[in-house]
Amino acid sequence: MSWFQPRASVSLELIHKAGVGTSAKIIDVGGGTSTLIDDLICEGHSELTVLDLSVQALAVARSRLGDKADAVTWLEADITKVQLADSTYDLWHDRAVFHFLISPEDRNAYVRTVERSVKPGGAVIIATFAEDGPEKCSGLPVMRYSTERLHDEFGVSFALVEHATEEHQTPSGAMQSFVYCLLRKKS
Known about the structure:
The protein is α/β, with parallel strands linked by helices.
């Protein structure tokens, strides 16, 4: 849980810059216990999905939200294997999942899922460890990215709109460098 943060400020800023309205369909991949969904609900967003590999993490978020959890679609799934509906999402958000995909096959499966499930003109926000970020997280190897390399993973189907960096302080006090890319799916 070293990637946990009490408020996803950079993600929220990029979601606002993406220009999606409160009726936009948003998916938070790896959202688990993240509080991003709480903030989106408070802002009036009504078409929210949280996908995570961990049923326990989803249960924590559902419990924290109480009755508001009923307004969210909760999916327990592996993002490299899940079949999401075509052209469904206006905005795809992932903070700290993509960098765990160390095999080219897993990264390609992820990108194919994004290509299929994000609407033309939709926004994609991906945050991973930066080039100077940790080589492992929670004992697992990770990939580290520059803005250019992260955008390249998604290819010519996506335009780079904006990027940002963040020095994230983990609950244990360690610092981790992140890079964020806001991409736009071409029509």
